[in-house]
Design brief:
Strands 1-2-3-4 form a 4-stranded antiparallel beta sheet, covered by helices on one side. It has one domain: GTP cyclohydrolase I, C-terminal domain/NADPH-dependent 7-cyano-7-deazaguanine reductase, N-terminal domain (GTP Cyclohydrolase I, domain 2, 2-Layer Sandwich), CATH 3.30.1130.10. The two termini are about 15 Å apart. It contains 4 helices and 4 strands; from the N terminus they run ββαααβαβ. It is an alpha+beta fold. Helix 2 packs antiparallel against helix 3.
Length: about 120
Amino acid sequence: MSDAIVVTGIRADGRHGLPGERDVAQPFIADVELRYGLRAAAAADRIDETIDYGTITCEVRDVIESRSFELIEALAEAIAERLSAFGADSIRVRVSKPRAAEALGVDEVSVVIER
């Protein structure tokens, strides 16, 4: 199946990282892709036939803002677990940590997981 709902650039502040990094919330950016059959939604043209991207965005932000992890790998896994409730065939999550990239003098530091 090649259908997918994709939401990129979900920004939220969270307390993730090594000791000291979690003292103050810092920005994180998540991109998610949920593989899901969209044919029925397209035919019916009804929101209840699909996965609402607004709800996806709220769920991702909630995980970033309400939980705390040492590794962004664990944060990405928690996001994937939360989104699995929507019944997608597969989920791809990318989480980037802008402050870490800035500290290293690189464009981006991120992880990608697929479940």
